[in-house]
Amino acid sequence: MSKKIVLLPGDGIGQEVINSAKKVLERVAEIYSSHFEFEQFEIGGTSYDLHGEPLTDETIEACKSADAILLGAVGGTKWDNVPTHLRPEQGLLSIRKELNLYSNIRPIKGFDPLLHASPLKEDIIKGSDILIVRELTGGLYFGEPRERRENGTVAVDTLVYSREEIERIVKQGFESAQIRSKHLTSVDKANVLESSRLWREIVEEQSKNYPDVKVDHMLVDATAMKLITDPASFDVIVTENLFGDILSDEASVLTGSIGMLPSASLSDTVGLYEPVHGSAPDIAGEGKANPLGMILSAAMMLRYSFGMEKEALAIEDAVNLSLKQGYHTADLNIKEGKIVQTEEMTNIVIKNIK
Could you report the per-residue pLDDT of 160-192, keeping only the tens digit for each? Predict the structure, then answer.
């Protein structure tokens, strides 16, 4: 099986962790007699420095012809004074729109050696296993108009959703719940927003097609509170773009480290995979970056884009075993563990792949 993978290292530590994922995939290919073809392009601030824009047409075309895409991270203080439409983050928003990556999937599951580092009591977080399904190409981030009025004293952003946009992400949520614990929590703000009232109506309509899935409707503020007080009560959460952005970042710290969490952004034809963490420019180039979120994102790629379940499990098991052996980068806190640098952490995971 030969697959074409586009690598977008991006900025900061993205350059380092993308190399870790590539090495792990090369080892998987050796063990399972697969073949991966890699091509590398720029995105974000690095692209702006080289080409004057955060995302080039060449990169877009390469991604459109790929079987899957791995992204490191974008952004950094270096580009704080760049015009808004040229900021690194615009490269990420643009690639999502160009590839129609409408579904963002974030698994939030703790690793036992790290549960003590959670801001929540261990008995509250233990056993939690959440999948957040977030709509990614609509809503407030993409609404028009967005402008300043009245001599710049009034700012306007618009929140727009079509029935089609809501239906396809809600369907993704139901299908995800069906292969897990058959419990879907739909998050909205239907007591205030008309878009949320349409969202809730569509969820109710779609629920008739999935009679085996239990559906709860929950307001976003109540969801934010319950993620802290009872995270184990959730299975799959489906929600719109802004709410999903905030809730997934909140949930990501519950397990003890944001550096461990992968994510997938999917269209009907291609997937982009990236760790949840940022570009961390303060430690870039120092060998301190945690590669595990990126490596686990590669595992998600094997599962969702290539259907390579046993290979994905092999990577996930290797990461879990490495942590149980006590190895970790400096951002993690494992009792009686050993701090290692990025390259050594990667090599340990590779050694543990069975």
Answer: 999 999 999 999 999 999 999 999 999 999 999
| Annotation says 189 is catalytic | yes
The closest alpha carbon to 215, from 226, 201, 225, belongs to 201
Closest C-alpha to 258, from 119, 121, 74, 78: 119
Tokens of 273: 């995979």
> Catalytic: 216?
no
Give pLDDT, residue 75.
95
Q: Which of 189, 210, 273, 327 is catalytic?
A: 189
Is residue 141 flagged as an active site residue?
Answer: yes
How many Cβ atoms are within 10 Å of 108's Cβ, its own excluded? 23
pLDDT digits (tens, 9 = 90+) for 63-109: 999 999 999 999 999 999 999 899 999 999 899 889 999 999 999 98
- Helix (H) or strand (E) holding 160, with range, is none
**Contact present, 254 and 274 (Cβ < 8 Å):** no
Q: Is 102 a catalytic site residue?
A: no
Q: Is 235 a catalytic residue?
A: no
Catalytic residue among 221, 282, 310, 338: 221
Residues, the chain: 354
**Model pTM?**
0.88
> In Å, how far are 191, 198, 205, 214 from 209, measured between CA atoms?
25, 18, 8, 12
What was the pLDDT predicted at 1?
Answer: 65
Q: Which of 245, 288, 304, 317 is catalytic?
A: 245
Catalytic residue among 112, 157, 249, 282: 249
